[in-house]
Amino acid sequence: MGKGKLQKFAEMETFSNVFQYPFSVIENVPFEMKGHWREQYFHNDNPIVLELGCGKGEYTVELARLYPQVNFIGVDIKGARMHKGAKEALTAGLSNVAFLRTNIEIIDRFFAKDEVQEIWLTFSDPQMKNPRKRLTSTYFMNRYRHFLVDGGLIHLKTDSNFLFTYTTYMVEANRLPLLFRTEDLYHTDGIDEETRKILSIQTFYEAQWIARGLNIRYMKFHLPQQGELVEPDVEIPLDDYRSFHRDKRSSLETSK
């Protein structure tokens, strides 16, 4: 591990807005704030919104600035990246922001039933070879049901046609209430001003993708707690490009 990363990890240990519970830790130490985020950390009764796979935390921080009456928690396992957003939130005095460093596969160990109102998935790895690792898979949807309110909102913002197409099929196969969907976010007419304000937040890498001429896709849908979820059985063309700081994508032509 590089010296810069070690310094960031050491500094994050002192951040009051960061909670570090990777899988190796949570197995031995229960997370006592589960079900008590509002009273023990935020000290209010405001809604809680998660950004899963928050990276540098840019989206989490900007949403918190836009909506001071909402609590935002960025979740990622990459601590060196998270350091940037966590430090920025502290410097800006944003009391409605927290960061949780953990594996998203065990996200339901940190939040109690009905504790979360919305989830944002911003530029998640499409995981083209492994459906169970996709953050919009039914595997994860069932995990989200453990803590998301009935009918809670899921937002997906992505550069990946593969992930967007897969999620579209998943929503259709399970008849989840779709509120909005666009394959070209920044060239779509009729988006209301409130939604446009939220979606105008751009991360560093998003700006890079836009500069490369890639469409940014977005959808939002409700996730009811009732009903068995089924995986879509479809072949989807793989993305034919490599995103920044992602492993090289598969050379296969299609995947389920």
UniProtKB/TrEMBL annotation:
Belongs to the class I-like SAM-binding methyltransferase superfamily. TrmB family. Catalyzes the formation of N(7)-methylguanine at position 46 (m7G46) in tRNA. InterPro entries: SAM-dependent_MTases_sf (IPR029063), tRNA_(Gua-N-7)_MeTrfase_Trmb (IPR003358), tRNA_methyltr_TrmB_bact (IPR055361). Its EC number is 2.1.1.33. The gene is trmB. Gene3D superfamilies: Vaccinia Virus protein VP39. Substrate binds at D159, T203, F204, Y205, E206. Keywords: Methyltransferase, S-adenosyl-L-methionine, Transferase, tRNA processing. Pathway: tRNA modification; N(7)-methylguanine-tRNA biosynthesis. The keyword Phosphoprotein does not apply. GO terms for molecular function: tRNA (guanine(46)-N7)-methyltransferase activity. This is tRNA (guanine-N(7)-)-methyltransferase. It comes from Xylanibacter brevis. It catalyses: guanosine(46) in tRNA + S-adenosyl-L-methionine = N(7)-methylguanosine(46) in tRNA + S-adenosyl-L-homocysteine. It is an enzyme of class 2 (transferase). S-adenosyl-L-methionine binds at E51, D76, N103, D125. PROSITE patterns: SAM_MT_TRMB (PS51625). HAMAP family: tRNA_methyltr_TrmB (MF_01057).
